[in-house]
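Please, structure for the following, as tokens.
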Amino acid sequence: MGKIISTLVLITAIIFTFSADTYTYGETMHKKTIAIDLDGVLNNYTKYTDDIPEIKDGAKDFIINLAKSNELILYTNRSPKLATKWLIKHNLDKYFTEVTNVKPVAYMYIDDRAIQFNGDYNKTLEEIQNFKVYWNE
């Protein structure tokens, strides 16, 4: 059984070759997918309202630079239709391949309400107890 798992790991390492911005699957290069939350990351969110707040300073340049070497997905708890309208209003729609309200499969996630799990449950519990979103401190 161990030999089979080792072989699968080796095969996976051969098939997937990662670099800073891309990965290779077989013979094809792909951009890494980064899922970005809307509220609190791209806009001036301070509390939920029906209208999406205005774009955050620096967000457009951030998206333009990130999209040069990555595939971007916008994810939000809001209606994807409403979020798409917001992207269009701010001329950002061309940088996103998808808008969704379901957590997508991605290489990484950018979110203002996230804690990175590093394998230590006690440390994670402590971080949860002390967590504050940056815009509400």
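Residues 2-15 form the longest helix (14 residues). Strands lie at 16-18, 22-25, 28-37, 70-75, 96-100, 108-110.
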